[in-house]
Amino acid sequence: MEDKKKDSGQSRLERFFGGKGFYIVLFLCAAVIGVSAWTLLSDGESTVQKQAVVMVTAQPSPTAAPKPTEAADETVWEVPEDAQEVIAEPIAPEVQAQEPVTQEQPEAASQPEEAEAAPASYVWPVYGQIEQPYAMTELIYDKTMADWRTHDGVDIASGLGTQVLAAANGEVSEVYTDGLLGTTVVISHGGGIETVYSNLAELPTVSVGQSVEMGDTIGAVGTTALAEAGEVYHLHFAMRANGQSVDPTEYLPQF
Q1: For residue 162, is it within any domain?
Q2: 14-68: pLDDT as tens digits
Q3: Cα–Cα distance measured from residue 135 to residue 150, given in angstroms and rounded to the nearest whole number
Q4: SS3 per residue for 123-178
């Protein structure tokens, strides 16, 4: 049985290949080969195209070459040798001589006049006994006013109309009438020293600004001091040092 089957199969194949079957198989083989070849060719072309694209892309794009910069026309001047020497040594600018400006010297400030020194000695303006002493630190009794008060000078007893003398050299600075001490003359002697003469006659013999020397007459003993009218005739004599009252007996000579 099996041998019969094998024989029948082989006979069929022989008949198939012996007839049209052979050409059909041949055609199919050719078709398969053609398709395979076309596929290979297609893949090769695509690969080549891709490589070409990659190569084209990788190549840098050509750029326009920069145009060479046209050099500016330069004019070369030929400098003579003499001129070069001049250029090598710069010429100092000409300076016009200016006249010196004379500055006005400020006027020297006037020097203050030297203060006159205080007198070295004094004389008594009148000679007599002291009726009322100098008293600025204690009170003394005033007969005329009938009270106790200070006394800024000394009352020197002297006859009515007795000439009153300048105690030292100086200048008359004031002449006035005091309400209590009557007609008064003030003399400045320098060094801050002043002498004051009161209870003079109404008309003194000196005026303000007049220079006097020691012993010159400046007036006469009078009765113009209302606050001392109850005393004997006298001269009220006072002194000031730098505006402060001082005791005249400390400056007058002792006798």
Answers
A1: yes
A2: 565 555 566 676 667 777 677 666 666 565 555 544 444 444 444 444 444 445 4
A3: 6
A4: CCCCCCCEEECCEEEEEEEECCCCEEEEECEEEEECCCCCEEECCCCEEEEEEEEE
For strands 217-220 and 234-241, give the pairing: unpaired
Is residue 214 assigned to a domain? yes
- Same domain, residue pair 47 and 135: no
Residue 85 lies in a domain: no
| Number of structural domains in the chain | 2
**pLDDT value of position 37:** 64
Are 143 and 35 found together in one domain? no
Percent of the chain at pLDDT above 90?
Answer: 49
Sequential DSSP letters for 205-220: S--TT-EE-TT-EEEE
Does 30 map to a domain? yes
- pLDDT, residue 143, reads 85
| Domain ranges, residue 13 | 2-51
Query: For residues 169 and 246, what is the distance between their CA atoms, to the nearest angstrom?
Result: 19
**What CATH number did the domain enclosing 202 receive?**
2.70.70.10
For 92, other C-beta atoms within 10 Å of its C-beta total 6
Assess whether pLDDT exceeds 60 at residue 100: no
One domain for residues 36 and 138 = no
Reference 167, options 192, 203, 196; nearest CA is: 196
